[in-house]
Amino acid sequence: SLSRKHIKHLDLSGIGITGEEFAGHELTLPKLDYLNLSNCKALTCNGYLELLRIFGSTLKTLILIDTTAFNLETQNRKPKKLLPNLKRLEVGSQNRMDTIYLNSLLRTTGGQLKRLNVSKSHINFQAKYIPKCYVTSFTSLRH
After folding, report:
1. Which of 3, 82, 91, 117 could lock onto 142 through a cystine, CB 3.0 to 4.6 A?
2. Taking 80 as the threshold, does the pLDDT of residue 93 lie above it?
């Protein structure tokens, strides 16, 4: 079991990981609260879920700018609250994303989300499509 007890910030941006490389590894970063997966264009849905299984419970900030947009609710998946402490989420892509993608991400968060930034997403954003339980908790919504 690999343990890095003091790591709080992990920036994996721009590297060609799928996320599936972490499957089966018992990697613990108990103080990790920031994860940047920007420009991880090879990231798969399974790989993303694997990263959340390992790191999600402690994350407060997750950055997903120019990563692959996938729907976590496909293939009969019911996303769990893998990000119970997430307070800040930034999503965006040069490709057009939709509210289905955004909602599938939001459903993995707990009730702690305070800041949502979709300004780099080119999403046709309408707050009415975001479940009210998320909108009422926001202190910052940037689109």
Report:
1. 117
2. no
pLDDT score recorded for residue 83: 92
On the CB side of 103, CA atoms within 13 Å amount to 15
- Report residue 134 as tokens: 């998320």
DSSP calls for 33-86: -EEE-TT-TT--HHHHHHHHHHHTTT-SEEEEETPPP--TTSTT------BTT-
pLDDT at 129 over 60: no
Which tokens go with 23?
A: 């499957």
Query: What is the rounded CA–CA span in Å between residue 70 and residue 57?
Result: 21
Contacting residues for 128 by C-beta, under 8 A, at least 6 apart: none
| Interatomic CA distance for residues 20 and 26, integer angstroms | 13
Strand-pairing partners, residue 61, are 34, 88
Q: How many residues does the chain have?
A: 143
SS3 102: helix
CA-CA distance, 103 to 73, in Å (whole number)? Answer: 9
Task: Say how many C-beta atoms besides its own lie within 10 A of residue 6's C-beta.
Answer: 9
